[in-house]
Amino acid sequence: MDITWGAGAANPVIWGWLIAVYLFLAGIAGGAFLTASLTDLFKKNGQARVIRSGAFLAPVAIIVGLGLLVFDLGRPLSFWKLIFNVNFGSVMSIGVFIISIFTVLSLLYAYLVWTSVKVGSKVQVRVGRAANETAATKAAGTVGGRGIVAFLGALFALGTATYTGFLLSAVSTNVFWSTHLPGIAGVPFLPFLFLVSALSTGLAATLLGAGTCDDLTVYKKIDIVLIVIEILLVAVLYASVRAVFFSGNLAALFWLGVVMIGLILPLLLSLYGVSRHKNLVLPSCSLVVIGGLALRCFVVYAGQLFK
Amino acid sequence: MAKHYAMVIQLKKCLGCQACTVACKFENKVPDGQYRTKSPAIGPSGTYPNVKVFFEKQACQMCQDAPCVKVCPTTASHYNKDGLVLIDSHKCVGCKYCMTACPYDARFINKNTGTADKCTFCYDTRLTKGEKPACVTTCVGGALLFGDANDPQSEVARYMATHRTEVRKAQFGTRPSVHYDYEGVK
């Protein structure tokens, strides 16, 4: 270590892959919860498998993510101090409360969905196979305030997904993270990008979890729209910051991981799939999820490696 | 009038002896391999016969609009009554948000405590006893000036009134209390 002659310069990466994966999982959780709860709230014959998959995925993803976050702390066992010492000027401090409430609501929602699954199996005996899933969802949707939990949870899921972007964009001394929407100073860019990516990856992960299903065309079409929006946002990002952020070791991560695997290939596969294979989700959705992880890693590292 | 502790660094008087680096490690018992202050060589730059090299003392710049204080989720990073940026290690959980925000790379996670650590201008151990920071009193070349910038009679105030000094990375608007006089080295 030579601090005088510069050979031992400090590692510029302060937040490493643990934080990148945490931001990714928070996005998955938010997106999965929104997929399940909006299906539950707005689709009369909501697909029970989709609701179940998203409702169970959300708490698992956010709790694993929070585990990584706590593990990354200098003093992991003191994480509870984040709840008792509040700084309203700090995005992270506000985020602690958004994510805590979201975690509780997602657990509650998963419990309500789980109990309705048990009701469903009883219904199955009496009504028979065909009607079982929709009947179960309807029955549980009306009792127990599941709709209220779904609605409140959806708000906090939006907050969680957006917060991961605000967390980085609030670092005003980081030129990359604090990039603004072009032409609109004061409106940070990352929250939009991370929200769209969260919706896209959360939806994809939920469909993967739902497995074989009835017609998923609606979800696939929504995913195509989200991918197209994300392509536009990534293009805007590429055009509005210096080229150095997409260079060196990160060039492969960006072009291969974010652009090819995460956006172009799944778009082509989805377009093909909608027309030919209505229920085939594995190839396209897996790529979207991997691309979402690549995006978080790219943004977290690019902001720190190049200043 | 409230105090505003400030430091002036005259780079042409620094010979890179690292006495400040060592004095700080003595005074503050900083863990091995970690530093609250360091003075790396900048350069050499230029081509013969105009080659230059100088040493730049780097530590917490004691910003008056400190990004670290703004982002800290637990208010562990705070301004004390004398306007210094300090860390309450009892509140710090080690989230490193302050480290991502500090444009001067002045902070680190203390290996022993797991909390954020940085220069304090030796507030607890020396300033409160009326002494100057350890780096200032030990400086061999007399490159470091320290005092209350709000007192026009202080060494730092008089120096800044008569010399051109700069702050590092002024573009971030952090309003540092550490001022650099690059005259003779740049």
Automatic annotation (TrEMBL), chain A:
What superkingdom does the record give?
A: Bacteria
Q: Which taxonomic lineage is given here?
A: Bacteria, Bacillati, Bacillota, Clostridia, Eubacteriales
Q: How does it sit in the membrane?
A: Multi-pass membrane protein
Residue ranges spanning the membrane: these are: 14-38, 50-71, 91-114, 148-169, 189-210, 222-241, 253-273, 280-302
Q: Which family does it belong to?
A: Belongs to the NrfD family.
Task: Give the protein's recorded name.
Answer: Polysulfide reductase NrfD
Q: Which GO terms describe its cellular component?
A: plasma membrane
Presence of the UniProt keyword NADP in the record: no
Q: Where in the cell is it found?
A: Cell membrane
Q: Does the keyword Transmembrane apply?
A: yes
Q: Which UniProt keywords apply?
A: Cell membrane, Membrane, Transmembrane, Transmembrane helix
Q: Which species does this protein come from?
A: Acididesulfobacillus acetoxydans
In which broad location class does this protein mainly occur, judging by the first location in its UniProt entry?
A: membrane
From TrEMBL, chain B:
The segment(s) forming the 4Fe-4S ferredoxin-type domain are: 5-34, 51-82, 83-112
Q: Which UniProt keywords apply?
A: 4Fe-4S, Iron, Iron-sulfur, Metal-binding
Q: Which InterPro entries match?
A: 4Fe4S_Fe-S-bd, 4Fe4S_Fe_S_CS, ET_IronSulfur_Cluster-Binding
Q: Does the keyword Iron-sulfur apply?
A: yes
For this protein, the record's Gene3D superfamilies field holds: 3.30.70.20
A molecular function GO annotation: 4 iron, 4 sulfur cluster binding
What is an example of a Pfam family matching this protein? Answer: Fer4_11
Among its keywords, does the record have Nucleotide-binding?
no
Q: Which PANTHER family match?
A: PROTEIN NRFC (PTHR43177), PROTEIN NRFC HOMOLOG (PTHR43177:SF3)
For this entry, the protein name equals: 4Fe-4S ferredoxin-type, iron-sulphur binding domain protein
Q: Organism, per UniProt?
A: Acididesulfobacillus acetoxydans
